[in-house]
């Protein structure tokens, strides 16, 4: 909408300059194959349904009461699953909210926050929102993080691992090197996609007082519709996140979110089986796309980042869309010849491959 | 917990100074009469249960997909119920989140934000969090807002109406006077309790380009456990809130929250009947407490603010608590001889009155 200069006087001056994040679209078209926002193709654990049914007992009388502002039950379930003490767990309304609190809690410093040029595009948005100084570090030509670049003065570091949209995993040894080189900065490892084949840095939390690991239930737990994210860190860092959270919103987690996420964390078997299915489907899809001439970066995520030398990626995305398949295309420097494709079921992936093979590239 | 100076180096400097909000306690004791956080004594509309059941269909497959980041369906339901265009609706994860976004969007100005000395105690917390300059305006000796005090240079005004914890309603004529006196400031009317007998300022939104009205589903809709709040304002103000929201968290409303709140807004009959019950119970309780010697401020809310000249309020709160009844006591200047008591069912209120009459004041 158009806002006049006169109307703009009501806005806080800094808000007039904001460039908000634009999420992947959520179209409401029938029979669409939606491979654009890295959702899981399988439903959540059946225990989730039971847990929500329980909240609805007695005419949903539980809903008239505020939820536990601390979401203790959820923190305990996460602590158990992650094998950490409950004092090392923070929860929020999706990992996006957890990340927002992380930026405010740790990164508003004189020295700049470091992050890669190609990574989660919400980081520059949070930085602007909270007034965080930043220094963007280019990935190398293979789209990898170069550890030595993170050995310069800084007020914090945030790395997505596996990185997005590249899907590349940097490995725990490299993460430890970053942690050791920066004993006075908070290093955040954003592990939204870690459950699809990468090794989690949660195992390093006990050893490093400067480490925060952030995860989400949106991908590997099929709970994108629920909005539950969490962070694991030593208690002196969790305390900063709690101070920020309790200065913003006392009760961010509703009763359904708490109950459903607890049930998900308690069903380890379903979780592992489901992730293995996604990983197996990914390997099949990568092989099929390679046959069609795609170059696919090595993926440890539930998506792949692929380019086709013979065809413009923007055009390819448009042609897929005309055929009812949506993938994510970023019209940005360095990556505007790639498509980010979410791993679907084998049947869905086959539809993508067939459409490419028989219709677009035929 | 104790955080050492050395550990504190990891925190953003401003976060080290935060004094977070402390919500009313949510104890997990059996047979407790909980009259401390202004929850509704009745369950939500039965339609809420049906709506949530629908999200659970097909093994809750809907949960694997992100919700609509714009929560359009919910905005439409609110617009219809409030009789405003959908472009005038903003939604958030509880009215606490909506208020947080309001502070960031409008109140970070050179001139100070004005609000009463006795009001929602989250306002100073938001102000510190976002770096908002403030000037606190004392209520008069009857705990009323004096309109003339809000005719001085300012960078915004926020008024809770009915005010909390006083329960006193200032009336729309007085609100219009504040709006007219401040054509260059955003005036926010926080109407968390408006449905229990006060007149809403939503009817003024079309007329005043500087008005934002904030409401919640936590009280009058029995959905405290769900976390849904909203704001009504002209589109040039809604746009600022959207810019802030989309710089913080794209998907704050989960699928259950959207579906359940929509169902609640569509059941106007249940909503009105339930509020009338609470109002009737309030009038009975006020009369009974007056008989016991309490002075009760005139209430337009689902709580009352009462003092007993013959007894210290802190002691009274403690004695009620020993008998399984929790009310809210604020150990703060001017109001430390008052108790804030949530209106329960008639049976619950009778238990309070009987306990006072037969045990504490006998």
UniProtKB/TrEMBL annotation, chains A, B:
Homodimer. Pfam families: Aminotran_1_2 (PF00155). One of its GO terms (molecular function) is histidinol-phosphate transaminase activity. Coiled coil: none annotated. It comes from the Bacteria. It catalyses: L-histidinol phosphate + 2-oxoglutarate = 3-(imidazol-4-yl)-2-oxopropyl phosphate + L-glutamate. This is Histidinol-phosphate aminotransferase. Pathway: Amino-acid biosynthesis; L-histidine biosynthesis; L-histidine from 5-phospho-alpha-D-ribose 1-diphosphate: step 7/9. Keywords: Amino-acid biosynthesis, Aminotransferase, Histidine biosynthesis, Pyridoxal phosphate, Transferase. The lineage of its organism: Bacteria, Pseudomonadati, Pseudomonadota, Gammaproteobacteria, Moraxellales. GO terms for biological process: L-histidine biosynthetic process.
